[in-house]
Amino acid sequence: NLTLKSISVLKWMSSFCGNAKYGLKADDDVFVNIPNLISAMSSKRQTMEKFIIGSKQIGAKPIQDKNSKWYTPKEDFGEREYPPYVSGTAYAFTIPAAKALYRVTGRVKAFWLEDIYITGLCARAAGIPRYDHAGFTFQRRKPTGCAFRRHISGHYVTGEQMVKIYNELLQSDLKCD
């Protein structure tokens, strides 16, 4: 269960990553432009100690269709809307946020949708703000360095494509339209 894995990661980071500034959760088919991520995190961190950044979702409702992969019975989640959360395809957070998130997991009932649980329910309980950044997307991007030059993440990228994108981004003479 991804929720339990994420709780374990938060616990591990809280215990063993005291010198780190940031954490990142990304699916294995997501390319992350690390220099752009660090730039975005550093910029936000100048004014805040604890935060989560990614593709923020507001107003999402539990799906009540029993045939849906995302079906959520009312007894599992009784609210009309999910709290604002950050898409689980890729999101980043400060280590102080990771510690605060982990501390509340013991009192926030576990929920099977990891992104809603960690960045929605737990973040709400811990009072951690979630910020939307246009550089994060859970949509497919063209697998080229130019497509990722100004972005932070893109979804549905194969390992081979990640290597290609990375190598293109390393080129100092990369020409883009």
From TrEMBL:
The keyword Transmembrane applies. It is found in: Golgi apparatus membrane. Keywords: Glycosyltransferase, Golgi apparatus, Membrane, Signal-anchor, Transferase, Transmembrane, Transmembrane helix. One of its GO terms (molecular function) is hexosyltransferase activity. It comes from the Eukaryota. Its EC number is 2.4.1.-. The keyword Translocase does not apply. One of its GO terms (cellular component) is Golgi membrane. Its main location: Golgi. One of its GO terms (biological process) is protein O-linked glycosylation. It is a single-pass type II membrane protein. Belongs to the glycosyltransferase 31 family. This is Hexosyltransferase. The lineage of its organism: Eukaryota, Metazoa, Spiralia, Lophotrochozoa, Mollusca.
